[in-house]
Design a protein that fits this description.
Layout (H helix, E strand, L loop, with lengths): L13 H20 L7 E3 L7 E2 L2 E5 L3 E4 L2 H9 L6 E8 L2 E3 L6 H6 L6 E5 L5 H7 L5 H9 L6 E11 L16 H9 L18 E7 L3 H14 L5 E7 L5 H13 L4 E5 L6 H10 L5 E5 L3 E3 L4 H9 L4 E9 L5 E3 L3 E2 L7 E2 L20 E3 L6 E5 H6 L12 H11 L3 E12 L11 H17 L1 H6 L17
Parallel strand pairs: 5-8, 9-10, 9-12, 10-11, 14-20
Antiparallel strand pairs: 1-4, 2-3, 3-7, 4-8, 5-6, 5-7, 12-19, 13-20, 14-15, 14-19, 16-17, 18-20
Length: 478
């Protein structure tokens, strides 16, 4: 049988629209491909009490269990006896593969789904009430808030089908969802890792560090967006000048220092270009409680971007906070970073090139998400945290310094967070050029080798926020 699917693509340019249409055509092929799984679902459990071993099986209407569910659950919990177990699923004809426990994902939407197993001692009176709702989102948040992270288990197998299709405004949320609600939820998830920020300092000073060499118009656009688009006013802007030649840029520096001496300072770094060293130098002169590393080829779109990032950066459990960055054609440049995949199995921006109007895999573009890393083109972090790990590694002058930094934060037990409510343009590499030939390419290869050797075990083990069933070559593909 031939199936037809019709979608309306917003006028975001011809190429993005064609790309989105081709992606949906491919998704339609996958939908038909996965029909073979259907016959394995619809199995009822032995007994009607919803008990499997020491676990209560909780699911909503429309859930059909895979024939192997009982076996896979009992096998998975036999050693560690976790408090809470969730699995991958089949939904709307698609296999939906999920990350391991990600508290900020769960605060943003019900990524765990509507079929879970809960150890019986965790099911108190309130849990039973929540178990009877049309969505298990509240139950999942409630149980996870009582667990240590290691007590939450993810089985990376699609062990049930959820036949109930939520609307775009259902419990999966929307891109216009209120950030404060997500943040409040996130602060109460995971007793072992989350902590409420200092309520007496809701608007800490943010030191914005911008490396710059010439490119006066790029810098002007970036600075003016900080001054006139950005709604967060408690900032200082540190422009770290590095070997500029043009008279125009120095005239602009003088203009800034004379007109805004209380906000803008021009620092001078005279060495060769080293992104890590330049930012570390800027951080050493920063007065703010929060640092924002920001490329000169960016422009703020959403006025509350810095506030949105600061809401998360001030939490004690949080390391780096990244933003949603768009190319000039309104396609994604950055929406989080996955490690251990891509052509050289180092790191990739998984949604790069996807039109911003699209939802992304697992609604990942428009929801707050935990990732192993975020880009330093726009990265916020507490200065105390930055200093505690020694800042960016100056051996990685240009490539992988931000990914390495984020992985060191993860090693300290901190969460890195992608916050799409922070929205900027990023005209990537416009000011510095590409690393695909000559000396730049040689340096890139050298730094890639350092990164791969340093994080070899982690890269081989796989990114916990990227499901092992998905492609290691092309993000989000099977």
């Amino acid at each position: 049988m031939i199936e037809h699917f019709f979608f309306i693509y917003k006028n975001n340019g011809l190429k993005p629209a064609i790309k989105a249409a081709l992606q949906d055509m491919s998704a339609g092929h996958l939908r038909r491909k996965h029909r073979a799984y259907y016959e394995k679902y619809g199995v009822s459990m032995d007994g009607s009490d919803g008990i499997i071993g020491d676990y209560c099986m909780v699911h909503t209407e429309g859930v059909k269990l895979h024939s192997a569910y009982r076996h896979e659950l009992l096998q998975a919990v036999s050693e560690s006896m976790p408090a809470f177990v969730y699995t991958d699923e089949l939904k709307g004809g698609y296999l939906l593969f999920k990350p391991d426990y990600a508290p900020d994902n769960l605060a943003a939407h019900n990524y765990m789904g509507n079929c879970v197993a809960v150890r019986r001692d965790m099911m108190d009176e309130n849990a039973w009430k929540l178990a009877n709702k049309d969505s298990l989102w509240e139950l999942n948040r409630y149980i996870c808030a009582k667990c240590r992270d290691k007590e939450i288990m993810h089985i990376s197998k699609a062990l049930y089908e959820d036949t109930h299709i939520e609307s775009r405004t259902g419990d999966v949320g929307t891109c216009t969802e209120e950030l404060t609600g997500n943040a409040d939820i996130a602060m109460n998830i995971g007793n072992s890792t989350n902590a409420v920020p200092d309520t007496d300092n809701q608007s800490p000073l943010i030191s914005v560090i911008i490396p710059n060499c010439d490119h006066v118009e790029d810098l002007r656009r970036c600075v003016e967006s900080l001054l006139y688009v950005n709604s967060y006013k408690n900032i200082e802007i540190l422009i770290v000048e590095n070997n500029s030649k043009s008279e125009d840029i120095f005239a602009y520096y003088n203009e800034l220092e004379k007109s805004l001496p209380d906000i803008i300072r021009i620092l001078h770094w005279d060495g060769d270009f080293n992104y890590s060293a330049i930012n570390n130098y800027g951080a050493g002169h920063a007065k703010g409680e929060l640092l924002l590393l920001l490329n000169n080829d960016t422009k703020i779109i959403e006025p509350d971007s810095l506030m949105s990032m600061a809401t998360y950066a001030m939490r004690e459990n949080t390391g780096a906070v990244g933003a949603c960055l768009l190319y000039g054609d309104k396609t994604i440049q950055h929406a989080g970073v996955i490690v251990g995949i891509g052509p050289d199995k180092t790191a990739v921006h998984p949604s790069q090139g996807v039109p911003f109007v699209e939802r992304g895999y697992r609604d990942s573009i428009h929801h707050v998400q935990n990732y192993s890393a975020v880009t330093a083109a726009c990265l916020m972090v507490r200065k105390s945290v930055y200093d505690s790990v020694g800042g960016l590694d100056e051996k990685l002058a240009v490539a992988y310094n931000d990914i390495d930094f984020c992985l060191r934060l993860r090693k300290q037990g901190l969460l890195n967070v992608y916050v799409p409510q922070a929205l900027l343009f990023h005209y990537e590499s416009k000011s510095r050029g590409r690393d695909d030939k000559g000396a730049n390419h040689e340096r890139f290869v050298k730094e890639a080798d350092i990164f791969k050797e340093r994080w070899k075990k982690l890269l081989e083990a796989g990114d916990p926020y990227y499901n092992p069933n998905l492609s290691k070559e092309v993000p989000w593909r099977l």
